[in-house]
Amino acid sequence: MNKLVKALLIFLLGIFSLILVAIVVIPLFVDLNDYKPEISAAVKEKTGRTLSIEGDIDLSLFPWLGISTGKILLSNADTFKAKHFAVIEESHIKVKLLPLLSKEVEVSTLVFKGLVLNLAKNKQGMSNWADLAGEKPSEAKPEPTAEPEKNKEAAFALASVMIGGVEIENAQLSWDDQQSAQKVLIKDLNLKTGKIHFDELIDIELSLFVENNAPALTEQLSLTTQLKLDENFQSIQLNNTKINSATKGKSIPNGAFTLALLTDVAIDLQQETVALKPFNLQFDATTIQGSVQLKQFKQPAIQFDLAINEVNVDRYSSKKAAVKAPVTPAAAVTAASQLIPVKTIRGLNVDGQLKVGKLQASGLTLEQIALKIAAKNGIVKTEQSIQKLYQGQYKGKLNLNAQTNTPKISLNETITGVQIGQLLKALKPDAPAQVTGALNVQAKLNTRGNTVAQFKSALSGNLGFSLNNGALQGINIQKMIDTAKLFSGKAMKTDYANEQTLFSSIKGTATVRRGLLNNPDFVMNSAQLAVNGAGTVNLVSEALNYQVKANLKHHAANDRPVAIKVAGTISNPSYTMDVLSMVNEKEKEKLNKVLDKALGKGAGKAVNELLKGFF
What we know:
The chain is an alpha+beta fold.
């Protein structure tokens, strides 16, 4: 890109110098049109290109020395398709005569109409401006020596130049990269500036239209700003900068994307700082406000304080894949990455905070989000909270240590009153939630590794949980208790509303060691039921292994607890009665007689062999 800018500057400054020399050197009464062949021959000799001046060259006199040209064409480099490298339909420039006597240059507005630049790169990677830049790859450039006096003279010369402005009307730039088969066309380019002078605000207006082939899209762009430069180009200010963009294309969600930016930009090259303050960015229905600051260009230190009203990430994402329900938002962030970019994290120097009014992502809707992040020397610390999370709240802290090749992570998280059924339904709208209720979790966990599997297998810590006023789907404990009464010869109900169990609370505590969660005090209560037990959850395979006992709170003296075995996985649990642990030998014999009578002789013994898989 630097080569391109250099080539463009050489071209434009070359024309400017040509015009300026013509004004000062060539006698006023000489018709410059007579020298067109000599000018073209000089360009041919120096560049190998053909310069054609088709229009007339006109001079103006006192108090402004001025020159106007008609159409000027510069041929393209050999082997490139476009006939011309550059074309200018019309140009105008005037220099005030008297200030020249005191070594001051006062230029009127520079006008370039119908500028066309055809930029290209061939399949070998050679650009069509390389010969104009005069670069020789094989030759090493010597280090420039300090020349204070010449630098002072150059600074003085720049300070003494005043330009009334620049106007580029209806320009067109094309880019054809044959290596990548990419083509870009910038047309209807219009640039207008106010008076140009150092340490003074320069009004700038820019508009253009872009057509891109890969991906196929178009963009209408406009910019207005006030530019301020110092004489040494060390301080750059862009005040009241407004950028508006409208992009269209099949690859863009909903086919169109609009953007509006309003900010002030301050760049100090000597101090190596860039600040955008205030910062106001709008795209679609999203508004981002705040400030951003960057220090140290080689190893950037970034500070930010931003607030977002709302953002719909799903709008800009491809079709959603099946998503497993994460335990917490921080865990979701960890699970989404298969490999932590250790080297990148070690180079981060970030200190900032972000607030989001509403976020939609992966089918979830989160509101009133706050995030603080500090990252330096491979240590990342975050504090995050969600004030509205499916009728509940979340807050947590995450510490990531990437100073070694095996990152370490610690989590301290709290979930309060989150309606787990609504959360699961949002994540998997096509699958019924296996559990509902208000979830509360307090967890302090640690892990290490570089992949999700490693994180799970190394996870350790402690947690407490409760789930209030909900239901378990796929199991009817009341039905199981009634079924168990068959062993005592009691009648079984025939009407059960559905396969679910309502509860007022489920609670317990757990320890996690190397990815295995051990819950020794599982307790569930409802108006009629009391359930308690213990079990484990393998967080790597997600396998469940629970043994619980359930009984009616108001039961007869001879009623016994029902033993229930919970197996399967977190996403697809299974519930079976542990019949063998509930029936003694006398009751088995009695049950056999009942079954023999109802189903035929021998049926009781056969059914008894299948009790392990019963229910």
